[in-house]
Records
---
Amino acid sequence: MNQIADGHVNHYPLVPITPESRTFESTYRIRVDDVDPEMTVHIAAVARYLQDIALDMTQQSEFGRTNPFWLVRRNVIDVIEPITWPGNVTVKRWCSATSAMWVSMRQTLTGLPECNAFNPDARPAGRIETESFCINVTREGRPARIDENVLSAWSGGVTDRRLRWRVLNPKKVPDNADQQDHLLRPSDFDMFHHMNNATYWQAVDRYLMRWPEVVAGPYRAVIEYLNAVPPTDLLTIRAAQSEGGFGLWFHYGETLTTTVTLTALPRVDLARG
């Protein structure tokens, strides 16, 4: 089922790479703390790989000179085939849609599996397709225009040059949602003094232990960052299950800060990088 909570549908196909797309690629070692007891890369580690590739691309391209500061408004993560340990993961990144102050960046993650005493058998490489809605900002966090020359250099193959924000996840918390506190640490906050994007996924992993059937096959996770969380020690999470998935709503006090949906995908590829 493609719906969650109040009927929102977020199973749209991700934009595929084109021959004209300019790409940035890097390979990262899969660490022991990136995987669960089944030696599968967990979704919090995927979020960290997305942060790593974004920072590496910014620092090693023209963006580092003209537009070094970015905030992520949304990540869509399609786990088509899980990536496993031991081994490496290669991340390929390219621009799929643009506007004056924000872009949509696509990433394909492909596993490069190895064997060891813990995991000695041959296994699939694994593939994860992702899409990030990224906003260019000043050092103070205010939206700013992207340098036109740099934007043009990364716009090969882009057909949507009027990218607009539209909400995918429902904001309304279902009446049957339960509520739990989520404790935070000082290390959960970044240089913007906001809660780090990857930290949210640690909470999501906890709910996957409750509803593991959602990730028994291909699945889509969508996280939307609506309001920044300043340094604090406590968030409230409201959670509700729906047919084919579940939703999470993060609150700081009475403010809705972040929404997450996880839903099973049909066993077909939605995009290929």
---
Amino acid sequence: MTDDGSTTGDPHVFASGGKTDRHDYMAARKFGAQTRDLALAYHWTGKNVYARKAVEFIKHWAINPETAMRPSPVNRISVDNKWGVPASVEINITIPNFIYAAALVNNHPAWEEEEHKFESWTRTMLQELEDWAEKPYGNPVIGYNTNMRGSYIQHRAAAATYLNDGNALQKAVTWYKKHAIYEVNDDGSLPLELKRDEALDYSLNALQAFTTMAEVARHNGINLYDWEGPHEYGGEKPVLEAIADYTAPYIVSPDEWPHAGGGGRSQEYLDNGAIYEALYSQYRKEIYLEAIRAMNRPLRSGDYTGPLTATHANLFEL
């Protein structure tokens, strides 16, 4: 997967191709999801054919000299800063699929002693993700929407976990608590997302990212599901629960959404809404189950969370 829409002239730069034509991003998103699903198939069945193909895809994306992406989250606008966003949300959505896949096929013979190259690639990416947060434009106050901050920090946490870097994960959790949910109303609505044309899709996209961050943390013994929230938030529930509570009724009845972008169930809507499988497993709220039923199981996301009914449905029954 090399890019044919890069403004830099570098074929190893991953660029979305612009707002009106995101062909490179859509292809990369599909490729990453296929890689993750192959690794899950290996995890569930033990069949090596799935592991070999997953490793082949990871090598194509990150290791092979002819096709590898340069490991940087800021590729898309390294020359053309017309969107004013210095870290690519497309990259932060795409790359975790390869990280999760690599973790599932860890130490498989198909790596042919090249697994360390992907680890090095991920280490470089993680370092750039951390460096971005320390630069002036890493301040989330400056034009970075809530869903973008969420996708950024779940990518960073996934990379830290894959590398077994507890210090990097703790720094990611600290950044999440300080910056990720930068603006949230007491009712759980996200004011920056409500201003957008597809406000429901983007609110759900942010929820998917925050919940993924909570899942990564949970697997590392850190509870973000019960975190009260930033000091700006004055609600009575944990902030993640409040955000989930706000959007759940509108999955059941999208026509009642009072902001822009309601009235139907787009593919993006279903991709993001599938995260209620994980949320229901944690909070066990009836409205979350109603939302799941409204979307019709089995649910899966085209993003990094994948086949959520298969991986996260009713975990409390296990």
